[in-house]
């Protein structure tokens, strides 16, 4: 069983507090239609980028995939988040999602908040009935600040967020 280190738990708590206090006036949360929350988990990980040429033949960071561990309220690792985007629970249940809506992060340099619709692709278990995933309270994860000078070079940016899973 993996437990989230104390300093990360405190950092996540501080960012969540700032996110709640600093939410812009008039900003509406991204809520799924007619759904019931099953689980909310704190994520700690990285957003992975690749240095690629664009249509103007200019190098720039392009998002590739997330890699994060999600922790329950007791600080126990319960879900792994990766490319797809996908989430896999310790019991083998797995979902893959696609973005339905997004809005800016509450924090500077935070990845957007998202609402994703999902489908189950794994065994029966914790995630098999999940229809929507909501990513909120994001901090970090923006494109790397390091220069993008070598094609196909990899870069990553640490981030934290809250993922809520809905039935």
From TrEMBL:
Signal peptide: 1-27
Keyword Signal: yes
Pfam families linked to this entry: DUF3455 (PF11937)
Keyword Nucleotide-binding: no
Annotated keywords: Signal
Domain of life (superkingdom): Bacteria
Protein name according to UniProt: DUF3455 domain-containing protein
Species classification: Bacteria, Pseudomonadati, Pseudomonadota, Betaproteobacteria, Burkholderiales
């Amino acid at each position: 069983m993996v437990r989230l280190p104390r300093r990360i738990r405190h950092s996540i708590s501080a960012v969540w507090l700032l996110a709640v206090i600093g939410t812009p006036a008039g900003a509406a949360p991204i809520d799924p239609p007619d759904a019931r929350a099953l689980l909310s988990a704190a994520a700690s990980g990285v957003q992975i980028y690749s240095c690629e040429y664009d249509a103007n033949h200019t190098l720039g960071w392009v998002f590739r995939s997330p890699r994060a561990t999600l922790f329950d309220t007791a600080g126990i690792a319960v879900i792994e988040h990766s490319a797809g985007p996908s989430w896999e629970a310790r019991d083998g249940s797995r979902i893959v999602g696609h973005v339905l809506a997004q809005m800016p992060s509450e924090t500077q340099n935070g990845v957007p908040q998202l609402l994703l619709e999902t489908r189950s692709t794994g065994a029966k278990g914790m995630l098999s009935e999940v229809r929507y995933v909501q990513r909120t309270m994001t901090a970090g994860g923006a494109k790397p600040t390091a220069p993008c000078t070598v094609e196909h070079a990899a870069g990553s940016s640490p981030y934290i967020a809250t993922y809520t899973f809905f039935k």
